[in-house]
Amino acid sequence: MATSIERILGSEQYRPLLAIIKGLRNGAVYGTKVRFPHALVMTLLFKDGSTQDKVWSILEATFTHSKNLALFVLLYKSLTSLMEHVQSEKSQLHSFVAAFIGGYIVFGKYNKVNEQINLYLLSRIIYGLAKLAVKRGYIPKPAGDPFPWFAAFVWGIVLWQFEYEKDTLQPSLQSSMTYLYHDSNVWTNLKNFIWHNR
């Protein structure tokens, strides 16, 4: 039996299907590895409620992240494999079309986990597109290190938004910034100055 399984795993005939199955598995595992510790820490530090509510919140966020990432990988790999098979060649357009469809179906449903994943990716692609523009010669390569300017604009904009257009920011970011910048202006005694926030 083990020999026949190993023969199938080594077969080029089944490789596309096996890659889809392993992609589904890797999406589930990666989603769990990324979300569980994040949900655990954020829940223990910032959420109120019973222990049962906290455990449920951690498990729900972990399941959602893991399931969505696994489904997205399944869709993406299935669609790119299908398009490559139909056209008998690989194309850059296949990646975009497959991810576009998968993104709409899986990550287009609004929930906090999808919002965080989409925002995470947005920041990475904006940064990556700026690098691509330099790489392709659309904009000149900066003479010095652009990272300090990038950081300055990011922080300048986000604090301006927080102070004057707070409702336009994501709720978890509003909470973090309130804790850092507004709650630090409030205390009544040594206890809530050093140990407790309020």
Automatic annotation (TrEMBL):
InterPro entries: Pmp4. GO terms for cellular component: peroxisomal membrane. It comes from the Eukaryota. This is Peroxisomal membrane protein 4. It comes from Dreissena polymorpha (Zebra mussel).
